[in-house]
Amino acid sequence: MQSKILLLEDDINLSDTIKQFLTHLQYEVIQAYDALAAEEYLYESHFDLMLLDIKVPYQNGIDLLFKLRSQGNDTPAIFITSLHTVSDVTRAFDAGCDDYIRKPFSLKELQVRIASLLKRRYGSYDTKIEINDRDYFDTKELSLYHDREKVKLKTKEIKLLKLFLSHPNETISKATIYETVWDYDETPNEGSLRTYIKVLRSHLGKQSIETVKNIGYRYVKE
Length: 222
Known about the structure:
- By secondary structure, the chain is α/β, with parallel strands linked by helices.
- It has 8 helices and 12 strands.
- The strands form 3 sheets. It has a 5-stranded parallel sheet, with helices on both faces. The protein has a 4-stranded antiparallel sheet with strand order 6-7-8-9, covered by helices on one side.
- Helix 3 runs parallel beside helix 4 and helix 6 packs across helix 8.
């Protein structure tokens, strides 16, 4: 299952180069060329990581990230920029970025930084996310294990579980779930979603996934 990355970069050639490289590495990359488009994509869909240029049209990347963080968006963010001063770096981290890479940079370096942040996103530098004393999720295999035995799950159930584990104790809207779990050419089905939720509850415990009326669901992690 692909990790989804938002790429905000107004240099079209550089943006296309980064997307081609990351797509080859099996990431899904959504391109935005200005701050307004980036904000719209973030509103409509869930992303696992953001790559943000600072000097972009309508609003600079630092102000955009500051706004996103103030709204509760904690998606890992890497700034990619030509700004080099200490004050620029300070402003970037004050806004809530997780990493910073200066132009020009090697694509291999970008790959390493992305991989590091995505591992950190799941709470561990190994491939296992501990769920409770008996269950864990292997992020490399994309498999759920119960008492060391692999649990048979459908592809959409795995996608849904991965989404919940990456956002513990957060309310996730049905719109975000549909965008993440269903492919672009598929029609989301609320009945199917309820079935997937029921299956995950049967493995993780009935109280592990709360229904937030008229909004969506919340994975409860103590």
